[in-house]
Specification:
This protein is of the alpha+beta class. Helices cover about 45% and strands about 10% of the residues. It has a domain of about 325 residues: Orthogonal Bundle (Cytochrome p450), CATH 1.10.630.10. The chain binds protoporphyrin IX containing FE. One of its GO terms (biological process) is organic acid metabolic process.
Length: about 450
């Protein structure tokens, strides 16, 4: 039954709710149609579960930023909660365990160089392996998918465990296959809840190896942490027995971070190169700016972005168009609340349609085309519109934003400086429509690599 003054929505069928209103393969177009019929805040029943879908900057801000805590819960009756035994962070409800783990993770990653030089070094080190792979493929056509997944995964492994894996390592290959599989079978909000996650159980995650190596943690020197795991173990030692910290929570928090940080970053990189190959004038303009700013320098630093308004505009435009986490991670209300005049009871599932903000008419100069002009003013300076929300907003906002932005900038700049990326003549028309899942994945595509003649 619809609660009183609940947001409007399509007629609800018994048991099925509104499932038939949504295309199981990809509900994003249906979400858009429903927005046109019912407005920026509408309701849906995913089976018996009352759900509110939030669209557009105004409603999104009211919920996530102004009401913040009231919309910062996570549904707790999903399959994922069983799988993570309610011990992780990303799916934990709004409360002390989530808050303390989030704060700790942010602080640790920052001290570890998230946003600082040492993190840059880790990204540069991993980029050298990408370069090695590309060097082997000069003049050839290759598929960049596994390479970018590996790189993103390794950067997270470095932060968490102080380890990386060779690109042909069987463990990392199986991990990447599983992540890709999950993205493929995670086809709709209900599948997010049920069908996809059993496969998580059988994942031979890099952690299984890393945790076996936790014996390597016997080599740790308390107070001299080498990575996230060491930091957590140090912290665990300091906290009282009844604290929210435990070894189990460490494992699930690490899994959350590894998952959240791999597919997101690699799919964004894949989107970047898909577009850069098909908009060669944009690629060239980036290269001109990079050559100019980095002249005489060995390599780029994250600070160089301030001298590269065009490249900044391109990296942001890539994120806008990639719309990598289109429905964010589902939220739930933590108390009875209101949004845009409607009443929403405590415990209602909330879906943020981030795409509706990232391509909202009235917020962007070119909402429906790939155009770095969306982030440039008349003087050619970089500007970031408020509707740039690929990381969501409010207390649950992506905690890897700093790391992700640094990765995208440094990897793109370093590769564009050295290589030219070409859409192969025999590749036909590019298909820009991504595969739907928790993250949007570009369809596999070929890439031709050349060394830049000017280098
Ligand atoms: C381009 C890359 C990325 C994008 C687009 C992205 C996007 C998002 C989005 C939309 C959310 C949901 C926020 C919400 O519920 O309101 C999220 C959550 C999260 N992200 Fe990211 N993310 C990226 C990279 C990363 C990286 C590199 C890490 C790891 C360091 C990470 C860690 C997390 C975590 C732990 C959460 C859950 C936060 C919480 O529940 O409090 N993400 N991300």
């Amino acid at each position: 039954k619809k609660p009183k003054n609940f947001p409007p929505g399509p007629p609800v069928l018994p048991i099925l709710g509104n499932i038939l209103h949504l295309n199981l393969q990809n509900p994003l177009e249906d979400f858009e149609k429903l927005r046109k019929s019912y407005g920026n805040v509408y309701s849906l029943f995913l089976g018996p579960e009352p759900t509110v879908v939030i669209n557009g900057l105004k409603a999104m801000k009211e919920a996530m930023v102004i009401k913040a805590a009231e919309f910062a819960g996570r549904p707790q009756d999903m399959f994922i909660n069983e799988v993570t035994q309610r011990k992780g962070m990303a799916f934990a409800d709004y409360g002390s365990s989530w808050r303390e783990h989030r704060r700790f993770s942010l602080m640790t990653m920052r001290n570890f160089g998230l946003g600082k030089k040492s993190m840059e070094e880790r990204i540069h080190d991993e980029t050298q392996y990408i370069i090695k792979t590309l060097d082997k493929n000069i003049g050839k056509t290759m598929s960049p998918q596994v390479m970018f997944h590996n790189a993103a995964s390794n950067i997270m492994c470095q932060v968490l465990f102080g380890t990386r894996y060779e690109y042909d390592d069987t463990i990392i290959r199986t991990f990447i296959q599983s992540v890709t599989e999950i993205t493929k079978i995670t086809n709709g909000p209900w599948a997010v809840l049920y069908s996809s996650f059993p496969s998580i159980r059988k994942l031979p995650l890099p952690f299984s190896k890393a945790f076996k190596q936790m014996k390597h943690k016997k080599t740790r020197v308390p107070g001299e942490p080498r990575d996230f795991i060491d930091c957590y173990l140090d912290e665990l030692g300091k906290r009282p027995d009844d604290s929210t910290f435990s070894e189990d929570k460490l494992i699930f928090t690490a899994i959350d971070l590894q998952f959240a940080g791999t597919d997101t970053t690699s799919n964004t990189l894949l989107t970047a190169f898909l577009y850069l190959m098909n908009y060669p004038h944009i690629q060239e303009r980036c290269q001109q700016e990079i050559d100019r700013v980095l002249e005489g320098k060995d390599r780029a630093s994250f600070d160089d972005r301030h001298q590269m308004p065009y490249v900044q505009a391109v990296t942001h435009e890539v994120q806008r168009i990639a719309n990598t986490v289109p429905l964010s991670v589902f939220h739930s209300t933590t108390k009875d609340t209101e949004l845009m005049g409607y009443s929403i009871p405590k415990g209602t599932m909330i879906i943020q349609n981030l795409r509706s903000v990232l391509n909202e008419e009235g917020q962007w100069k070119y909402p429906h085309e790939f155009n770095p002009g969306n982030f440039l003013n008349d003087q050619g300076e970089f500007v970031k519109p408020e509707a740039f929300m690929p990381f969501s907003a409010g207390p649950r906002m992506c905690l890897g934003e700093g790391l992700a932005r640094m990765e995208l900038f440094l990897i793109m700049v370093t590769l564009l400086r050295k290589f030219k990326f070409i859409w192969p003549e025999d590749a036909g028309e590019p298909d820009f429509t991504p595969i739907f899942g928790i993250t949007l994945t570009p369809r596999p595509y070929p890439m031709k690599v050349q060394l830049r003649s000017s280098q």
